[in-house]
Amino acid sequence: MSQLQSLRGMVDLLPEQIQRWQKVESIAREQFSFAGLEEIRTPLLEVTELFSRSIGEATDVVGKEMYTFLDRGERSCTLRPEGTASVVRAALQHGLLNHGHNRLWYSGPMFRYERPQAGRQRQFHQIGVEFLGLASPTIDAELISIGWDFLQSLGLKGLELQINSLGTIEDRKSYRNQLVQWLEVRFEDLDPDSKRRIQSNPLRILDSKNPSTKQLLKDAPTLNNVLSDESGERFLAVQQALLKLGIPFRVNPHLVRGLDYYDHTAFEIISDQLGAQATVCGGGRYDGLVEELGGPKTPAIGWAIGMERLLLLLSDLMPITSAPSVYLVNRGKNVEIHALVLARKLRAAKVGVEIDNSGAAFSKQFKRADRCGASWAIVLGEDEVARGEVRLKRLKSCKTENTKQEFTTSSSDLDGLLALINT
RNA sequence: GCGGGCGUCGCCAAGUGGUUAAGGCAGCGGCUUGUGGCGCCGCUAUUCGGGGGUUCGAAUCCCCUCGCUCGCCCCA
Asked: Domains in chain A, please, with CATH?
């Protein structure tokens, strides 16, 4: 291909799709505002250290998926692979936590250098919510409910909320040791991927898709049994809150989130219609992160929704319409400028107008007028301009009524014209 | 990073070694020199992602490369 193309995994959002995006964004904006959230926008580019410190050096995201480069000042910069770290950084930098701005949402592009596949791109978009400085189990339920309600209100079906508790960092450490011991005894029965992960990320093995490994893991020790009493009670409280809210969920003891900063509540909202990348919304508590990034000890929790995955689910549910009310048919010497003058007046009166700029034969223009779905055609030719008239013709209704509806008004009588159009 | 599938006009596609690369949609022109939705007629790829090779001859076979796509890893 000698033609210039977008980079692999970088996707254009074409006009056809963009309406759905705008719809989703406006619903999000509205609902989040009712939930008392404030929007925050942070830079796409951050110092690399922000992500390596928060997400974890050993994770795949940091280890092999970041877009990292040196800028002209020899600083290592990274295109953000996720939103949480930036939000926390911004909150600390501007002292937001001291001013009560602690329920935040964001949306925008994220970057991860991976092989694209269904529901995965190198530049993708997330819409996310973060609660900073809020600790109670009820907060976990509230945060989850905001995501759940948002997805429900879009009309999505076949979603399942799965939750788990990772306990405290200490709980996780002791569980990790226990699990590794248990797995090492059965090392020979594991699939190659899982063998490798015993070193790098043993908790991840719980999430394995390999059938025989899955079978084996049925008897593995679970996190729940290792949780401290306090962590266990906390997890129960979150579940009770969700029950009270009437949000259905399933406890999945194998649910492990990939980023290092998660503790306690972890959850995902999963679709049965997305293929391999089924998680639409993922999140969890990260009580240690703010401190890790140099702030005061601050409990926090958040989630992110993958916009592309959401739109994949939504495309069938959300038909798009974009027909103008008026299609302005025009032809003749010096007529086009009159058409533009008229269109501008109508547009100012909140009437959607599309001008035909082809100069083609009237029959052609009418064909297009009909095809674009406009309700009215306004006809402007040399005759009309000379007489100071505007001709108006109803398009769609004639199909059913089988009567031609045509009107002529003076071009100076804008109100009369508008009255007709709005009938 | 590793595997599978695919790449013919703006879109959907037939063609799988033999003179001019089907067809449909869209587009353009006309029937209708100023009036749509239907119909009819005509036009629209010296070229089959790109490069090399095999062959008298390739879109069709081989090699390389690029891209897309699905899956693994991982994640939204």
From this structure: 15-168+228-314 (3.30.930.10), 326-421 (3.40.50.800)
